[in-house]
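Most newcomers find our protein records easier to grasp once they have seen one. The structure tokens are whole numbers drawn from a learned vocabulary of backbone shapes. The record below serves as our worked example for the rest of this section.
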Amino acid sequence: MSAHTVAVRSHPHCLGHAPGLGHPESARRVQVILDALGAGAKSRWTIDRQAPLPPAEDVVGVLKWIHDPEYIDRVRRAAADGSGWLDTHDCRVSAGTWEAALAAAGLALNAALDLVNGRLDRAFVALRPPSHHAERAAAKGYCFFNAVAVAAEVVVQSWNRPVLIVDFDAHHGNGTQQHFYGRADVGYVSVHGFPAFPGTGTADETGEGEGEGFTRNVPLALGADDQTYCAALERAVDEIGARIEPCAVIVSAGFDAHVSDPLGGMQVSEAGFRRMSAAVVSAAERWSDGRVLSFLEGGFDLQAVANIARIHVEELAAGHSEKPDA
């Protein structure tokens, strides 16, 4: 398949969430990614550091598809207070948290709308706070609103066709799984460390009701290396992708399985992230006419985050009509 131009998007509002000095989920994570991607190869991707955002009321309206309205208001009120913790000890709020979380969801909404309207087919969205731990009525694991779930819901409702979410963050996406666990129109694949935060994502969590068989968790022992982590992802993506034949692949792109990450506990190299990124693109080429939306999740070693983001976007810009080599 031919190469693609990747739309790289972010917004300054995402930098306004300030959980405090020393907190690993800092604004620097987005800044180093955008700087690394801005260093060259701009014919292969475009960078918009101030991508347009939908009106706030539109974002809130879509968030109600994913989150309890009372919870959305609780995030707003907590940010207005300007300090303290929301729901869990790791979700500290600041005066900029509401605007940042709303911007992250808005970037996801616009990326999904641009996908379904044919304005892009590949995107990497450097947003924060991250998404995949945010549950319907609770913040968790640095996450407040589930932007990945927003993007998936927009595509499914627009096209009435299934999508596949691929999550290779070192931690299980409990929130994303919760949102779609009983549905057959959203497949969810997660490869992650176990036992580790958040304590979910066992192999027997495979969906329920109509969604039975559309969730595939691969819990790995801490310290998993490239071969173990990448092969597990490839097998799971093949299994669920073939089952649902998605119209788009949506990625929770967590970079914290890297060997140098202070929180991930895994031993994946930069070559491993290239292999996983290529596997995602190969899946999209096979089933989704190449359509991929990727969203930043975890990753807390700044140099590794910058390097892996560059690798990830390079692979999104490439064509992978065949499965990547093991």
In short: The chain is about 40% helix and 15% strand. The CA atoms of residues 96 and 235 lie 40 Å apart. The first strand starts at residue 6 and ends at 9.
